[in-house]
Known about the structure:
Layout: H1 5-10, E1 18-30, E2 34-40, E3 48-53, H2 59-65, E4 71-80, E5 88-99, H3 115-119, H4 129-151, E6 155-156, E7 162-163, E8 175-176, E9 203-205, H5 210-220, E10 222-230, E11 243-252, H6 256-277, H7 279-289, H8 293-302, E12 306-309, H9 310-319, H10 336-346, E13 351-357, E14 373-381, E15 385-392, H11 397-406, H12 415-419, E16 428-434, H13 435-443
Parallel strand pairs: 3-5, 6-10, 12-13
Antiparallel strand pairs: 1-2, 1-4, 2-3, 4-5, 7-9, 8-9, 10-11, 11-16, 13-14, 14-15, 15-16
Helix pairs in contact: 4-6, 4-7, 4-13, 6-8
Amino acid sequence: MRTKIRKIKESPELIGQNVTLKGWTRTVRNQKTFAFVEVNDGSTLSNMQVILDAGHPEYDSLLESLTTGSSVAVQGKVVESPGTKQSVEIHASSIEVIGLCDPTDYPLQKKRHSFEFLRSIAHLRPRTNTLGAVMRVRNTLAYASHQFFQERGFYYLHSPIITSSDCEGAGQMFQVTTLDKENPPRNERGEIDHSQDFFGKPAYLTVSGQLSGEIYASALSDVYTFGPTFRAENSHTSRHLAEFWMIEPEMAFADLADDRELAEAYLKAIFRTVLETCEEDMLLFDKFIKKGALGRLQNIVENEFAKISYTDAVEILEKSGKTFEFPIHWGVDLQSEHERFLCEEHFKKPVIVSDYPANIKAFYMRDNDDGKTVAAMDVLVPDVGEIIGGSQREERFDVLHEKMQKVGLDPKEYWWYLELRKYGSVPHSGFGAGFERLVQFATGMDNIRDVIPFPRFPGHSEF
Ligand code: 4AD
Ligand code: MG
């Protein structure tokens, strides 16, 4: 039976025991009378130091085949290490090289590689310290997200990936079709005839699971989705992906204040879990990726977020004396430079901005009584900007019907969405948290493309 390195390091009762560990060789240092072999199996950031005695009958040939990247099985005794870098090490009785690693062209040599280069070898990059750490933190954030909502009585909803509705109304959808693209069927007007397509009408990859969330919240009260979402926006920024994961809670009988409360509690809970369970990985980010990453996360967990209205945010920006690339005035959407000024320079902590102008937000958001704003909220955090976007939903049939027509959505296409407002409508609210932005914020990684295993962005669907 194989024992993972993490388990060996966390189990003092294994000292003196014989174990088998399996992993990949990171480095070998030949000290003449023995060799240090550093093995990593990804269960934890740090390697296991294995000591191979020069008296081993195959010492020389083993050292030759133990190249960086080779996979190995090591049997040996766990002993307390005299070194200061690790608490335990393995005194090997046998080492078997399972898979040789060609040293002449293995791309992951000991030197540091740029993240751009590592993206081009996405099949090997999880073997690096940083990418391995990112993926462990990512895993913890996913687990903590489920835990948070489950403990609060939210049910996990699997919203569809293929859909015919455009939740955000932004027209950024990838079409899904089985029609012959060389020679599609056409109607009498010469347009492509989607009645002959697989779903009998145009279908797309979903941009959000919210509409499904609203349906199920209108029955189960509190639900959340956690799945992939897709946006065909031609963004080349460090914060946008064409395929990203989103967590979308939806609560019945809840207003915007409840929504803000949930968003803040959620962020604090998942980041607290990261601090508690990913200490070693977080120390790496703190030291090499983003100085102060640890303290920043601690601050978030411990302190209340700032809360302001969009109108007040605009006033702060106007009075800031800063020249922004995109001039700011009431009515325009906040750009990332504005969002970052608010949380990095003005408040120096996360900010929840509420009540945005109606005409820059989606059709489903609830109209406020002032006739110009909607009950929307965005959570902004340093470096990343918008990490969560949410709102109270318009629950009044007539108001929603009129808004749909105003933005050019056919109420007939959304008949089921409108019917929720006819049959026992309730005030309800929810939000969407961009999962990669959560990972990006927790780790301090610069580029969102490095916090998802296989990033999809314009021009890139490799791996
Ligand atoms: O603000 P958005 O567009 O809101 C919605 O989709 C709502 N339907 C959510 C809801 O209320 N249920 O997206 C929500 C979040 C953003 O705040 C951002 O964190 C992330 O999703 N996001 C992206 N992340 C990576 N790449 C992109 N292209 C993203 N677009 C949005
Ligand atoms: Mg948004």
